[in-house]
Amino acid sequence: MIYITQLIYVKEGQEKIFDEFEDVAIPLIGKYNGRLLFRVRPKEDSFIETWIDKPYEIHLVEFDSEQDFKAFIIDEERRKFLYLKDQSIKSSVLYKGVKL
User: Fold this and answer.
1) Hey, which of 24, 57, 69, 95 would disulfide with 5, CB 3.0 to 4.6 Å?
2) DSSP 50
3) Cα separation of 48 and 92, whole Å?
4) Quick check: 90 and 10 in contact, CB under 8 A?
């Protein structure tokens, strides 16, 4: 089992475009033995302390294996909509780990 935590920084004014991409990408996670454990849009007062930019969204996803995650990334349906991701996301940080 692997866990993916992603901090997503969306370009101002591109939130609806980002949601369009997520509407395609998130349902595909299950196709590759993955589960979206949570998707959070933290509010300004949710942060107690921070040394980095505050993300627009935070995702925690688990996949049964590294191969499942890699298959999700190259999924042909998802790839058709990457232009929406490119248009709407300023940057993202992905942390990959295992449950201890």
Assistant:
1) 95
2) -
3) 21
4) yes
